[in-house]
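ok trying this again, last paste got cut off
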Amino acid sequence: MNKKLSLILAIVGAFSLASCAKETTQTANTAESTAKQAKKCGDMSAKKCGDNKTEAKKCGGEKTAAKKCGEGKCGGKENMNLAAIEKNILTKYPPLEIEMSAKKLAEHSYQVQGKAGIATDNAGFISNAGFVVTDDGVVVIDALGSPPLAVELLKRIRKVTDKPIKKLIVTHYHADHLFGAQVFKELGAEVIAPIGSYKYINADSTPKRLAERRESLKPWVNEQTYVVKPDTIIDKATDFELGGLHFTINVVGAAHSDGDLTLLVKEDGVLYSGDIIFGGRVPFIGGGSTKKWADTLAEMETGLDLNVLVPGHGDASTDPAAAIKLTKSYLLYMREVMGNAVEEMMEFVEAYEETDWSTFDKLPAFDAVNRLNANTVFLSMEEESVE
């Protein structure tokens, strides 16, 4: 009887050992499969988000593969793939040596400031960007004019924080603020833009602009550079919260461009205005409405309660009214002189040559953009005169 019991126990023990070994093998296989799944998810997300033919719906929003992996939803390895994608991003674009620094404006808010100039000066670094560091991640405001410039921006962010990039707020769709957006898209950031952005995206002139920059900003803008589509379009004032900070996106409409917005960081009292405000230089008048633009600035001049205003170009200011004054006065003067010329049925060339530009002609970018601005306003005033 004891021999039989011993035999049974031996058989049970052998079966248990075999089962345990099988379980261990299965666990190892599962871990290997998980790692492969995580890598696959990261590779797929990078490929999808780097493809300019991918629909925004497939590549963006809460279902973005890169975002899922960055939130630890891919194989349970939180941020593993995001770190790999970021490491790749830091080396995949053409190198760029540029003077760039991140200036702290408030407890959470920073500015990166481009130099005054035309679009292709300073390797294209002529516009401003910003970022806000919260407990849960980073909000980036505008992406600069090329992927390598965006990489340099990312490096400056990483000197401040290692938190993930959660959102990219594009204040408006113009090349000098936009062509770096793919860097943050590849990192899984939600790309947020104002209504009117698709007018730029779908315009016949947009591929031509990109082609021009591939020549004038070679090699930093190249065949791999593409126009990123927004994940989210904002068409009205919108509040959101991230990491304990509260933000307000205000939709300006077609003012400087086909669609503009501003971003307010409430706790810091910092407003990122985009190009509805230019600091210390002649503004560029794009595809919007100078009337809408000037009216908006007049409202802002008396209605803002801020600590710091960050324009789309130029220095941040602790005196918002003063920061607004230059852009507003330029727009009003341009509308006045070109409007008078239209009323008097003058030719544009005659009107331009007879105008006194002495208030503005010493400002940066005057020689590059003033005549083009005047012609744009002249044509728009003709349209307004027959409405």
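PB: full thing came through this time. Residues 1-78 have pLDDT under 50 and may be disordered.
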